[in-house]
Amino acid sequence: MEDSRQVVQAKSPAWPRALLASWTLLGVFKGRQIDATKPCMLCSPAGSNGDKLDEDAQAQRDKEMDENANLPVRDNITTEESLDSRCPVCLSLLWNADGMVVSDYTDAVPRWVNNRLVGSLSLLFVSLYLVCCVGTLGWYFYEFWGDLRQVTHFVSFLSYGGILLGVAWVCTASNVLQYVRRAPGNSCRWYNVLHADYIARRLRCLTGRKFRLPASMFLTLSILWAVVNVAFQVVSLVQFLNSGNLKPEKMSSNTTCPTVVPQTAEYAVFVFVKTFLGMVIAAIGLPIYAAFWHYVLVMRKGLTAELNLVLVFVKNNEGRVDWCRRRVVEIHREVSLLRRILVRLMPFIVATGVLGLTVHISWNYNVYSDSEHEKCQKNLAKDNLIINIFIFSEKFMVLFLPLLAVGGLNIDHIWQQFTYALSRLKNSDHEEFWDRLMHFTKELDPEHKDIDLTVVLAVVSLYLGRNLTGQQLDYTKSGA
Ligand SMILES: [Zn+2]
Ligand SMILES: [Zn+2]
Question: Which terms are listed as keywords in the entry (predicted)?
């Protein structure tokens, strides 16, 4: 119970280069000094960061003042001497994996990465990704909308492009809002999830003296997967250019199959522009996509590690309801920030990804099993083989990376684990303390009920796949 007031301080180690590279892609570094110190709610200047529970805050503050009259309640000074005078909750917010207090981030990110030039270049990159996604989807709508024979192809691409667009939108919007609103890195805004300060707070709990790249396997494999997809894209582009599909007059020679669409010059232009945009999306978008989900995975690991540190804090401060409650509030706010993004992104991605896969599988069924034009269909399957593998590969990639990174449909499970662990710590010495803390923790995070689009869309897509006949099945005729 006795609070040992000695503070062991440490400096943050340098972040691994692979992390710096992948987060530069996401536009995390904008040349601002990283400030990972975040005062607890009572110590921070009132109203500065949109608190949710401000009603009890005043009452709690008064109580706190009586309890710890010797502790100054507000201090924003981050110099080393002031650390000793911080309240225990504030100090526990600065714990790293070894339980040392880390507030010095001068060595974490080198200047040549964290500067304004790099920041604006990454913003440019991320916006280019968004623009290309919108552009390609727009092209598809313009060309395929209302054409019943192209519905399979259209929906198939729409599901893939839509997912990429979702992530592009999150990255771009968060970057732009950080520039426009300039909210401090410790405020509770959803776009601050990609803020260097938020990231530094998460990484602190993953590191001790040394810093090994977290989730390095995931990053390596997903970047490799992205490179493979880009290679596929190049191969199918070459195949497409060699087949001479860009010249409309040649098309009449191989129209023995009734499924081939008559090609026009306008259509050839469409295919060309679309293929070009597709290349740019693959080359820029897929690495950013992989980096984004690696980042989500690292954030999830960081939050899990911090929840374990909270358990240690609660164990050390058994009986002090107010301190423990404040610590739980702090971590809950950090968890809900990431959750707020994922709760919108994940159902969309899973539903759309499942739709895309089902549509593509039904395309496979049509190509391989149609007996009407036996000879013709065989050629079709052979001609489309590379595109077929490529589409499977990219569709699996956009669906599985998020699922792996989040570890399910959302990150609620880490909060659940925390409440279980908390109730296991319970003992009869402080019956009332535990009851109040458990009650408070449960109240903080009521069960979330999100509409499950997944099942609905999967059924719809099966229906779509089975009931649309006479589709234009040859994807090679319209580029990759
Ligand atoms: Zn404090
Ligand atoms: Zn209550």
Answer: Membrane, Transmembrane, Transmembrane helix
